[in-house]
Amino acid sequence: VVIFFSEYDRISQWASRILPSDHTLPKDYYSTKKLVKDLGLPVEKSHACKNGCMLYEKDDVDLEYCKFYGDARYKPSRERDPHWKKSPYAVLRYLWLTPNLQRLYSSKATAKHMTWHATHQIEEGSSVIHPMPRRGNILTKCILILQKSSVMFC
Q1: Which of 2, 9, 93, 132 is the most buried (most CB within 10 A)?
Q2: What is the pTM of this model?
Q3: Higher per-residue pLDDT: 86 or 150
Q4: Cβ(147)–Cβ(141) under 8 Å?
């Protein structure tokens, strides 16, 4: 699924309206990108078709047009400008999960929290209650809003 900047911004604005006023969710794509960059996490970038139907990787890395629809890979260039750099219509940014998990497990403090579910002993007779059924839960409110709206997720 390809999400464009404007759609990402719209989702962020929607989430900001339903979260408490002191939330720390980035307000838009630019803020999110800046936050991820400041964390120093490895990000892999790949050019993508503007229709979201293919990535220009491996055997397709040198293609200039989409294999399926024939759309151009790059935005039209300004021929007279010698410093013009080809700009793709769409770029996929992928955050690798493995290095991020390794970073979390490298600290004993965070590793303890990450393994809590496996090491925690439940006392006899007690039960674990999932927060979902509570009416005041923010996740419950989000689900109710999505059910009422015409938004469809694949």
Answers
A1: 9
A2: 0.51
A3: 86
A4: no
